Every structure is written in C-alpha cells, then in structure tokens.
Backbone:
C-alpha cells in the first residue's frame, strides 16, 4: 500500500510540474507579443527616431524638415526665374518697346490731316500750325511717351509735303535741299507740339 501511495504522489507532482511549465511558457509568449506590438505602434510615428537625444518638438532641431521645404521652394523659384529670363530679354529687345509702327502710322495720318486743314484755313504758315496742333493733341491725349514716333512722322510728312509743293524745284535738281527743309520744319513743328501737349497733360494731372 505504501508503494502505491508513493507512486500516486509522484505522478501528481509530475503533473503539477508540467502544468507550471505550460503556464510559464504561455506567459513568455504573451509578453513577447505585447513587446512586439508596442514597437510596431511606436515605429510609424517616426518622431522619436527622427529626433536626436535632447531635442524637443519646439527645439531648433525639430525645424529641419521645414528648412528643407523652404530650400526646395527657393530652388523652384530660382528655376522659374531662370526660365523666364529669356522671355524678359526678348521683351526688352523687342522693337515695339522703343518704336511702335501702329503709333507711327496713326501720327502720320493725324499730322497729315492737321497740315492739310491748316493750309486750307491759313494760307500763310498754315501747314506748320496744323502740324503743331495735331502733335499737340497727340501729346495731350496719349498716356505714353512717343517722341520717336512723333519725330519720324513729322519728318515723313514734312518731307513729302515739301516735295509735292515744290515739285518744279525738286525736278530741277534741288530735291535734296527741298526734302531737308521740309523734313526739318516738320520735325520741329511736331516735336514742339508734342512736347507742349505732354507738358499740359502733366500739369493737369498734378492739379487733379
């Protein structure tokens, strides 16, 4: 009987030990799973790994990504400015910036009409007064400076008018002198009228 009781107690002790081993193994597995999930949850935030020791969210080191973004924006602006540089150069070198053919033709027409009207109303010096009046009106109305176009229009109208009015003298061999005198008179009358028109426009704008 004693032998049987000893065997029963030994088997019970073995079962208890096996149960304890299973419980310990289960606890180890659960602790491993919990530690792995904690590392995974802290990994996606990335802030703890990006920040070095001693850096806080408000410290200068935390502003490094923003500085990188600013540098990227500056490089983009520099690339855009370098791309727009040829367009700016071509716009500055364009002919219409300094001389507009449309404005020139309009001034030729206006000065020519003024010259004809002046010659009709005033037989003496009517052409010069008509050119002066037309250029004066152009300077008073126009917003931009057009001295080059006005000079070219006055020379053209004055030279052509001198040749037409003194055709006999031009055919006789003094054509260059006739053209030079007519162009000079047209230039002086047109520039003087345009200048006084611009001056009056500036004075009126200041008064307002």
Residues:
């Amino acid at each position: 009987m004693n032998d049987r009781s000893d065997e029963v107690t030994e088997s019970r002790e073995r079962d208890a030990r096996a149960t304890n081993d299973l419980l310990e193994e289960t606890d180890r597995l659960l602790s491993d799973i919990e530690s792995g999930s904690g590392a995974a949850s802290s990994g996606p935030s990335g802030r703890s790994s990006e920040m070095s020791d001693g850096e806080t969210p408000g410290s200068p080191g935390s502003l490094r990504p923003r500085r990188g973004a600013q540098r990227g924006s500056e490089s983009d602006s520099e690339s855009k400015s370098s791309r727009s540089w040829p367009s700016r150069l071509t716009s500055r070198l364009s002919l219409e910036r300094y001389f507009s053919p449309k404005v020139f033709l309009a001034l030729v027409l206006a000065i020519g009409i003024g010259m004809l009207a002046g010659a009709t109303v005033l037989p003496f010096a009517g052409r010069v007064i008509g050119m002066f009046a037309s250029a004066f009106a152009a300077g008073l109305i126009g917003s931009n400076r057009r001295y080059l176009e006005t000079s070219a229009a006055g020379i053209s109208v004055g030279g052509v008018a001198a040749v037409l009015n003194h055709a006999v003298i031009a055919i006789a061999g003094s054509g260059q002198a006739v053209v030079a005198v007519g162009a000079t008179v047209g230039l002086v009358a047109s520039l003087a009228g345009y200048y006084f028109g611009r001056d009056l426009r500036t004075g009126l704008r200041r008064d307002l």
About this structure: Helices lie at 2-42, 47-50, 64-93, 101-121, 126-141, 147-165, 167-207. Confidence is low (pLDDT under 50) at residues 39-65. The CA atoms of residues 162 and 182 lie 5 Å apart. The radius of gyration is 49 Å.
